[in-house]
Amino acid sequence: MARALTLVDDSVRNICFLFLLAAPFVGAPAQANVVISTATTKNMDCASGVCTATAPNAVLNVTDLQTLLAVSNTKVATGTVTQDIVVSGAFSWAGTKSLTLDARRSIRINKAIAVTGTGAVIVATNKTNGTFTFGPHGSISFPHFSRPSASFVRINGLTYTLEPGLSALASDIAANPSGAYALAMNDNENAKVYSQSPIGSELTGNVNGLGNIISNYKVQYAQSGTTGAFLTLGGFIQKVASGASVANLRFVKLVVISAGSFDWVGGVVGENNGLVSGTAFKGTIRAGADSFAGGIAAQSRYASATIGNCSARVNLIDRKPSSTLGGLAAENDGTISQSFATGTMTGGAYDANGGVAGYNLGAIADSYSLMSIGSGTSSANGGIVGVDFGSGTISTSYAAGAVAGPGSHNGGAVGSNLGGPAFTDVYWDSSVSGTTSGVGSGVSTGIVGETTAQIQAGLLPGFSPAIWAENAKRNDGLPYLKSNLP
Q1: What is the pLDDT of residue 230?
Q2: What is the pLDDT of residues 24-33, one digit of tens each?
Q3: Which H or E element spans position 7?
Q4: Phi then psi dihedrals of residue 15, to 5 deg
Q5: SS3 for 422?
């Protein structure tokens, strides 16, 4: 090897975590990054347990990093010549040593990191414009974790309690809802059935899944008839408070069912007043009459509520009347950004059904839906939003899915717009929507219909290449989000 690696211990630095939607992190390596991969180490100075970039386009080989971690705590730092750290090669280490990733801006985990001993992971990003995100195949896991353990995760100064699975996490949040918790590994729930949200407490702290998966369980509220008041049911947690966060969790083979009516039913969260970021849902949701149901949240409430870099691959079913269905949120009063929904939505009569949100009273930006939407009579069905109220805005977003309902307001992008012009660079696929109008009822200024071929021909006007990309081999050639890959 044409490089010198000095192996000694390291002291670490901690900074406070922030997920900043306004500064998206692009997953593909760029010259301003330190890339941890299988390529040969270059432009890195490794001495005294610290590897620092010495020039742009820096690379640290995963085997070299494992060699360092075998004998000492190790820090990988961008220094002043690069900004981001991207993990593009999987690696693991045993023993007791810690890994610190210290970026001047952001950190992206695109491959699996496994701590097989009792080591720790420490992450530091920029508090002003930095992000800590995971690609579809990225995770940080502690596969042999059991309590008691010396292992921990620290994200920008906040130390997270490691949790071996959903049951332990629920118990710890019930005891201390303001704590900080991280999922240590994948958790297969083995077809377990919950009668309420697994986490029934209101979260006032922070949960980070570290890209790990909770899979194979059902949440089924067994009541038949009506509660008389809204029941809040989440596939993961009942309520996230303002200032609290759920990040980097993945749910697979999750079924959420409410047999009653007048309920809030969310794939992940019943009521979100805080931040849900980097989280993916894959499963089925069923709700009853007069209910609100969404792939990520039933209600994303107040201006403080944010859904960012999330996705829902959902079969959403509510054939009872007068319900509100959304691919990501049934009702959005806050912000939905850099997120998408795919799957099918089957509603009843007098519904408000939207591929991103059923009701929109907040802001939707840089998001898309490929949902196929159908309803009963007299509904408002939109590829992006069912009903957009006076305060609701949509920008740089698109829909490419079928929208149908007899005797309904069917719009390629919006079912019914109850306000004035509130749309900027919004598009719908006229080839697949089955409707001739971008808005079923109301003002449609700012919404443009394009054929599938036109949408695939290049980024749509107004779409930033820093956020969006197109590739014929990805997402059927339709635009996708760089920081939230389909």
Answers
A1: 61
A2: 444 434 457 9
A3: none
A4: -130, 155
A5: coil
